[in-house]
Amino acid sequence: IALGKTSLILVKLAELTQLTPVFPSQDPLDRADFNAVEYINTLFPTEQSLANIDEVVNKIRLKIRRLDDNIRTVVRGQTNVGQDGRQALEEAQKAIQQLFGKIKDIKDKAEKSEQMVKEITRDIKQLDHAKRHLTTSITTLNHLHMLAGGVDSLEAMTRRRQYGEVANLLQGVVNVLEHFSKYMGIPQIRQLSERVKAAQNELGQQILADFEEAFPSQGTKVAWLDKIDRRYAWIKRQLVDYEEKYGRMFPQEWCMTERIAVEFCHVTRTELAKIMRTRAKEIEVKLLLFAIQRTTNFEGLLAKRFSGCTLTDGTVKKTEVPPPSTNPFLEDETGTETDEIVIEKSDTDRPKKPKVPDNPFHGIVSKCFEPHLYVYIESQDKNLGELIDRFVADFKAQGPPKPNVDEGGAVLPSCADLFVYYKKCMVQCSQLSTGEPMIALTTIFQKYLREYAWKILSGNLPKTTSSSGGLTITSLLKEKEGSEVAKFTFEELCLICSILSTAEYCLATTQQCDLQQHTAVSAGPGCSL
């Protein structure tokens, strides 16, 4: 009987093993493959061990009661959780209802605020429209005043033939008149517009008449510098035709063909000087260099064709052969430099080889261009300024030279580029003139050498803590002792050496250039470098 009760108890305990997946346990009763017989045999391995069977049964019953109590507690706890969940849900619903009420209140207040803003801005919009209309009216009245005064001035200047002033005024009047295109229905505006058109027609007829009076011949169409090569092509054809028709009629020693060519040169020089004085504002660097190139080429052609025996003393002076010089700036240009330019990317602006010194016709026509070479000098001034600015920008972008033990005192590349440009300018200017223009160009060189010294050399010396103004080349050359000796990094020392080497190179090259210019410049009385 006792074993039967024990078996029933064990079976009941085995039913509890279904909770094993939820609550893992090491108890043999909790195993999925539990065997009651084996477990009993484990508890009572011998017949003598049956003596304490009551004690074992009591322990198992106690364990069953504890498990029942635990299960009962868990079930009651789950019942309480469901009640708490329902209570929390009711509280959340109440909170949501309150939130909806607050949102509705906010929406109502926002609609009221929007309506209030619309009422406020309605008056502001009216004032803004009034301001815009008032501004437009004032502007239109100012334009009308300018138009009326401009038309009166235009008519007066037209009568006085003040074409320079009329050109700017007419453009301004036409621009102002465009603002009144939608007011042409007003009689006064239409009358002003008709007066402007009448002034334009009168100007056109008047200017055309002045041109016809000033240039009565058919050759005026090719009188300007851009068509100067047509002059020389014409005289070439005339000389060839003359020699074919009349060459045998005159003795050869009279040199009639050369005399005709020389007379053509004198007339051309006079006419070109006259027209360039009249249209001096239209002369550009490219146009001027083009005309000079074509003219010097023509003079060279005359030197190859004629001997110059008909030239009178004092008309054209022969250029003396200058003494040999070691200055690299006036060396003949090599083929490797033909891809570099001085003024613009044009064939007419490239530096060319020096003039042939024994050309008796040199300057017979090209002398008329010398008074206008200031255009070339001003262009070089502008180009050198841009070049210096580019050097400064490149130095800021690329930084100082990289420190190198072997090349720590190397000359800055920009210095070589500057003197290469100087060389090309000198070669080109020597072909144009060796007088006052060369002297003016020398002054430009001095100006930008100083700028290079200040902006590239002195301006990039390292700063010192002892001097707020920074270093100067003069201060570097002074010997200092004690605390006055500035301490520099390796990179700063390399930069200082490069700047000093560049300054020394500039000094030596400038002295050579100055010596050669003294020899090359054919300065008149009172002129000096």
Order of helices and strands: HHHHHHHHHHHHH
The number of E-state strands comes to: 0
Bulk shape: elongated
Helix proportion: 55-70%
Query: What radius of gyration results from the CA coordinates?
Result: 53 Å
Domain Vps53 N-terminal: 33-219, 220-395
Region (Disordered): 317-337
Organism: Apteryx owenii
Pfam family, one: Vps53_N
Care to describe what's here?
By secondary structure, this protein is an all-alpha fold. It is elongated and about 170 Å long. 64% of the residues lie in helices and 0% in strands. It contains 13 helices and no strands. Helix 1 (2-15) packs parallel to helix 3 (53-160) and helix 3 (53-160) packs across helix 4.
Write a brief structural summary.
This protein has 13 helices and no strands. The protein has 529 residues and is mainly alpha-helical.
